[in-house]
Amino acid sequence: KLTDASIKLSNGDYDVEIIHSNTYEIKLLSNAFENMTMRLREREALLHLSANRDSLTGIRNTTSYASWVAKFDEEIKGKNADFGVVVLDLNDLKATNDQYGHAVGNQLIVNAAQVILDVFKDSLAFRVGGDEFLVVLQNENLENWETLLKQFDQKCANTFVEDKAKIAVGIARGYARFDANKDLQFTDVFKRADKA
Q1: Which helix (H) or strand (E) holds 181?
Q2: Which residues contact 177 (CB under 8 A, 6 or more apart)?
Q3: Of 9, 26, 54, 79, which one's alpha carbon is 20 to 30 angstroms from that of 160?
Q4: How many C-beta atoms surround the C-beta of residue 159 within 10 A?
Q5: Nearest to residue 69, comparing CAs of 116, 134, 113?
Q6: At residue 163, does pLDDT exceed 90?
Q7: Cβ neighbours for 186, distance < 8 A, ≥ 6 positions apart
Q8: Rounded to an integer, what distance in angstroms lies between the CA atom of residue 173 and that of residue 88?
Q9: pLDDT band at 150 (very low <50, low <70, confident <90, very high)
Q10: Mean pLDDT confidence for 78-94
């Protein structure tokens, strides 16, 4: 049984059940396998998380975005979708990096991400580029999109990075809503929001 479990483990099956024996050496071996299995599960979960999260902001990254869009396009094909897209572009990041350094620019990105997460807390948010973010609005947030965008503008106006100067977190934004009569896939809505 332990041999079978070790073969399954070596093939990536981390849900394998380790059977313990009363024989001392085999018990030590089964305990070692059980510990290794737990560590492998933890490491796999951590790898999955780091592969799908932006390391600077903690927001879902482009890998997560591409995977999510592929699945969501299936909903759109079935005409079961109702959503809006907010495309957000951080203003003056290059100028901030040039004038104050990349550490301040990174803090500007982090602060922008925090504003996005605070305002759109019940929505999917992605960092899809160096200074570009995307939020998918559904359900109640979709119905309240105008109020959310006003709250977003107010929060941006009151959020700063403090270095040698107060640097405002300015974010340009565009919004578009899915239209079943003309949108065939998620990127159709994204393009309209990006243009807006």
Answers
A1: none
A2: 83, 84, 85, 142, 145, 189
A3: 54
A4: 18
A5: 134
A6: no
A7: 69, 72, 73, 76, 85
A8: 4
A9: very high
A10: 90
177 contacts 76 by C-beta, under 8 angstroms: no
Q: Is the pLDDT of residue 49 over 70?
A: no
Mean pLDDT of all residues belonging to the chain: 88
Q: Please name the residues in contact with 150: beta carbons below 8 A apart, sequence gap of 6 or more.
A: none
Q: Is the pLDDT of residue 46 over 70?
A: no
How deeply is 77 buried, as exposed, middle or buried, from its count of CB atoms within 10 A (0-12, 13-18, 19+)? exposed
Which pLDDT does position 47 carry in this prediction? 64
**Strand partners of residue 73:** none
Question: What sign has the CA pseudo-torsion 37, 41, 43, 44?
Answer: positive
Which region among 23-32, 52-61, 72-81, 125-134 has the lowest average model confidence (pLDDT)? 23-32
User: Do the beta carbons of residue 112 and residue 169 sit within 8 Å?
Assistant: yes
Non-local (6+) Cβ contacts of 113 within 8 A are 54, 56, 57, 58, 59, 125, 127, 133
Element (H, E) at 94: helix 93-100
